[in-house]
User: What shape does this take?
Amino acid sequence: MPDLHTHIQTIKGIGETRAKALSKLGITTLGELITYFPRAYDDRREFQQIGNLTVGEMAVVHGVVAAEPRHQLVRRGLDIVKLQAVDETGKLNITFFNQSFRKQQMKQGAGYVFYGKVDGTLLAPAMTNPIVEEDAVAGRLTGRIVPIYRLTQGLSQIILGNAMAEGLVACGELFPDPLPESVRLAHELSSARFAYHNIHFPEDEESLELARKRLIFEELFLLTTALHFLRDRRRETDGIPVPLVDLAPFIDALPFTLTGAQQRAIHDTLADMTGPRPMSRLVQGDVGSGKTMVAAAAAWAVHQAGYQTAFMAPTEILAEQHHQTLSTLLEPLGIRVGLLTGSLRAKAKREMGDLIETGYYHLIVGTHALISQGVRFRNLGLVVTDEQHRFGVDQRSALQEKGDHPHVLVMSATPIPRTLALIVYGDLDVSVIDELPPGRQAIETYAVDEGYRQRIYTFTRKLLDEGRQAYFVCPAIESDPDDTSGGMKAVEVYAKDLQENVFPDRKVAFLHGKLKPKDKEKIMTTFAAGETDILVSTTVIEVGVDVPNAALMVVENAEHFGLSQLHQLRGRVGRGQHQSYCVLFSSHQAESVQTRLNVMCKTSDGFKIAEEDLALRGPGDFFGSRQHGLPDMGLANFSCNMDLLKQAQEAALALLKQDPLLEHLDHQALRTHIQKIFDISAERFH
Ligand code: ADP
Ligand code: MG
Assistant: This one.
């Protein structure tokens, strides 16, 4: 009897080769197979008569093979089988390339269903390599709503579809059902069995909708339950004691006065750490709101108590900037600040490792390198994750596990609408920095089309003459050879164009993720030092980079970016005392694009922008765009509505209130599932 962990190779029709291809999609077990959901559906229910076919359209037709199929070997490696299918309204010429088996398989006088694109002419319609089903077995690939899956090499829709059908049969009654019966009934959700069958092979639209509703609800419900459960468990362990310290020496060392919002966030943080439990706090604040200082204050306090801090940033550039800022600020206060990134040579890395393990460094700034196996801390008291949406929950907890329940501080510049925050940040307490340091001017933002290009270049020149610098952001690194419109700007080519044809007397540099870390660093340092005037880049500069002299952000093909991303990009300028500008180029006339870009022109409040994004694009985008660091959401990625989200959330919280430890017999399946979501070690899970 199979179970959900059964290897897929035991399923009928899946041999070694197919199992290998499937594993590339992350499918190795029966459970993984049936939770691999279609990305779309093809409605092949409506049959057409041959006499009514339209050239160029997809069609399903039923026909009888009129004569023996003819086989023809054109040359080595190319053979053709031709046949004619007829119904009472006409004839359809069918050609198969390199499917010589059709000659034997398809019999004169037998009926088949064909699905394919109609070519040929109005009077002599034809199909090439259509999907074929013999009458006797028709109904899997035609005559119904057919699932379309994301594929990989070695798989076709037919192979994967057949594997799925066999998988569903193999499951019998064994469908994963973490939803407690009471929740399922209260929210009128279909059974797991119904949901899995109909998400893959829907009976009709209504059944698909019911299946989808059930599975999305399940995802959101599990996530909320998991995050809240995790947070409650964390609160059961002892925290590292950080006595309340006098912050005065730290505050006196700052080159500016903290804003009220910064003070509040620091206060929240220190209060958490003096408490008996490990802190789990998120500091959410717009770009430039000064979140780094909250981390610095926390690291300072933790150091006073004799513990180390690890500070993880998503990119090398950002880690280096933080290292720079924090060492300048904290070294004079006796805190040794180290930097650990992946690009260190093996020897340097080993030395760094020793200095971390012996406790020489008090604060270690780094990239993912911090969570690599060899890194050991002497006594880790606090872990800080900057720009948390760039990390998965698992990476965050990997860093945490370098210590014994250290305090956790995560920082995010991605404002999440309040309605979503509860789900996305369910395991964290939240401090909001809703105030920018004084003297910041609003960034003037304009959405323009190609007609403005010369004017914008002239304006750029004027700013450069005043001594400012500019960013030009493009969506692509290389030009796409398939893009014949020449519309999409690519970093290297565009940088060359700007340098040679527009600003020959200025220094233009470019930056993208494919450059070597050393080169990236050099380009960024040179720009930060004011030695280059224009930096053409992909969104690698999106996160946290700080160049106060940069006063212009030009975004090319702005329609390619989400509102929140545009907001992040805009946050790269206006970081000094200079009036700054943001120009969004887009020749996209679609109203939806224009509406979105106009939101950027009207407001600079990240929370408001996020709310608008939510209203315009729905919550699915927030799950899909990896702004959260949550585990991959399956269905909620592309279809989910606010109402369902709220229902799932409320149901999860109500359930935890009633059974906080999920001990009830009816909640065992749920418990097992949420343990799996984050791969929570049994020990931490109790
Ligand atoms: P965030 O990480 O929230 O985007 P940063 O911490 O990088 O923002 O701070 C942005 C800039 O503002 C930095 O140059 C920092 O030195 C400066 N800054 C931070 N707090 C203040 C403050 N209270 N007054 C003036 N400048 C500040
Ligand atoms: Mg930052």
Notes: The CA atoms of residues 487 and 557 lie 8 Å apart. Residues 205-234 form the longest helix (30 residues).
